[in-house]
Amino acid sequence: MKKAVRVFSRIFITLLIVILGAGAFFLYLMHKDPGPDRPDSIDSGNGFVQACGTNLYDGDGRLLQLKGVNLGNWFIQEFWMGVSSVGDYDTGIYTQVRADAAMKDNPNLTDEQIRELKDLYLDQYIQEEDFRIISELGMNTVRIPFTCYNLTEDGYVLREDAFDRLDWAVDMCERYGLYAVIDLHGAVGSQNQDIHSGDDARYDLYGNEKNEDSTVSLWKKIAEHYRDNKTVAAYDLLNEPRRAPGKFGGKVNFDFYDRLYKAVREEDQNHLILIECFSFPVNGARLDSYDWDNICMEYHIYNLSIFSQKTCLNLYRGLHNLMGYHTPVYVGEWNAFGKESDWEDSFEWFDEQGWSFSSWCYKANAYAYEDLYHNHSRWSLFDLHIVPVDLSAASFDEIAEVYGRTGTQNAKKTAVCEYWEEYLKKQ
């Protein structure tokens, strides 16, 4: 059954890309795309990364292309690449919210031990050394996914230490000459009901006044906190929003984006704001409906079709132009999986177009996605190989032992890291 579903999914995605590709080809004929226009500098540098026309510029007004990686699986573990499971608890599928519940119901753990274990994982999984590695590779950007549950109590009340860990990451970026992209990967109630939002049990953000207001309030506090910080390149308001479970983005998402945009601008007039289109540019906002300034369109590109990587990328470019987006583009997530030529083609294509990009992801647990889910694609620059620990039943010592082995010193460098190294050596 699962095999049939996978085959059907590939066929559906392929047919969808054929249809959208025809539209993209029509666009090229009608618009005669002139190609990228990238002045080396502008006269309006204000210390912050900013959008001007279809390009990004740094604080001194120099042309900028963000090139980096996601710190996926740090603030938010995902079951398919994480070191934790929830055993048979509830649905048996690990999410951030369900993991918290499983730990609280685990008779072997006290509340204090749960807090200690969470801190241990965050301390071990990403360390200062990781920012040095990213910098020495030649990247200039780190996208930092987190959810409301990392900053608040149960999604609503901001914790006293809410920004401590995020501040540390931004400080590390500054120390090692990197930009930080602040990415709200999961809002309370979930904007997509996907596991990476932290909560796959609900689709209860849009139309829920309490959840909407809490998310708006959270972004106001984030913007107030970082409004003078020039290391932060951009605010990524919502990761992969859906108009309904299993359906791509739509007006409901972008009307709420408008609320978030206005809330941020009340506190911060300078930082670049990212507007995500999930999954194709045609699922994006009609920009003439909103009064937005200093924005960048964001796409996540995972080529699951039978077509080449270049064909897929050209499709996104064509559809971006078809929508009339006269904005810069940031590919906040992408992966070319295990094929070296696809990585090389992607790097070359992004540079030709001047699109910024951050691959998914820096580090993952290969045991989870290879041995448990039989997916042998290459996802990360560094791979752990750890049997996930059951948070619903394991002892404190058993969980601590696993979490203590998640540092990159215990991980293996992958071919993806080598592809990045070869590309960045030529820059």
**Intertermini distance:** 47 Å
- Assign a percent range to the helix content: 25-40%
Structural class: alpha/beta
- Low-confidence stretches are none
Q: Which topology does CATH recognise?
A: TIM Barrel
Number of helices: 13
Q: What key phrases describe this protein's structure?
A:
427 residues; TIM Barrel; 8-stranded parallel beta barrel; alpha/beta
Write up what this structure looks like:
The protein has an eight-stranded parallel β-barrel, surrounded by four helices. Strands 1-2-3 form a three-stranded antiparallel beta sheet, with no helix packed on it. The chain contains 13 helices and 18 strands. Helix 1 crosses helix 9 and helix 7 (209-226) runs parallel beside helix 8 (251-267). The chain has one domain (65-425): Glycosidases (TIM Barrel). The chain has 427 residues and is an alpha/beta fold.
How are the SSEs ordered, and which strands pair?
Layout: H1 2-31, E1 50-52, E2 55-57, E3 63-64, E4 67-70, E5 84-85, H2 96-105, H3 111-125, H4 128-137, E6 141-147, H5 148-151, E7 152-153, E8 157-158, H6 164-175, E9 179-186, H7 209-226, E10 232-236, H8 251-267, E11 272-276, E12 295-302, H9 309-322, E13 329-335, H10 340-353, E14 356-359, E15 363-365, H11 366-372, E16 382-384, E17 389-390, H12 396-403, E18 412-413, H13 415-425
Parallel strand pairs: 4-6, 4-14, 5-17, 6-9, 9-10, 10-11, 11-12, 12-13, 13-14, 15-16
Antiparallel strand pairs: 1-2, 2-3, 7-8, 16-18
Helix pairs in contact: 1-9, 3-12, 7-8, 10-13
